[in-house]
Write a structure and sequence with these properties.
single chain; 168 residues; alpha+beta; two-stranded antiparallel sheet
Length: 168
């Protein structure tokens, strides 16, 4: 199927792109779009989106109340992540980083916005958002799987942070 993705631009003409390039469906280079089209959270998933969004900062210390107990409650044993640095980290590393990290600055310094939730299956959700910090902005995703105990059925199984290029 040669149909272009809605998130990729058409093939570039002969002019040099002024933005980073991405391959198009035909394999040619095109200018990278600033953002993919928004995928609004369906009304039926909005309560779960809010619940999972509230859990996000508890396991990566985006709030001063984050604790190792919260991490253990919210993160699956097989969890791993790709940090904004591009490096891969396992659950043990992420837990140790949380243990060594003091509470984060107030919300005015770390801001999350554009929360969106997409159901991949009935038991696997993709939560995406933008994290704005004084030194960088990044797009974040977390895969949440319904596999935990009844008190906390949703566990983070994967997380990725991707830096946003300035001006996008």
């Amino acid at each position: 199927m040669n149909e272009a993705s809605p998130c990729l631009p058409p093939a570039a003409d002969t002019a040099a792109p002024i933005a980073p390039t991405v391959p198009t469906a035909s394999g040619e280079s095109g200018a990278a779009p600033a953002r993919c089209a928004d995928r609004p959270t369906p009304a039926s998933l909005q309560p779960l989106c809010a619940a999972l969004a509230a859990l996000e900062p508890l396991y990566h210390a985006a709030c001063p109340q984050a604790s190792l107990a919260d991490f253990d409650r919210c993160v699956a044993d097989g969890f791993w992540e790709i940090g904004a640095s591009g490096l891969r980290y396992d659950r043990a590393w992420a837990r140790q980083a949380l243990a060594q990290r003091p509470g984060v600055p107030p919300d005015a310094h770390w801001r999350c916005e554009d929360w969106q939730l997409q159901a991949l299956t009935s038991d696997l959700m993709l939560l995406s958002y933008r994290l704005i910090q004084p030194w960088r902005t990044s797009e974040r995703i977390t895969l949440w799987q319904r596999c935990g105990p009844p008190a906390q059925p949703w566990l983070a199984v994967f997380h990725q942070g991707t830096p946003v290029l300035s001006g996008t």
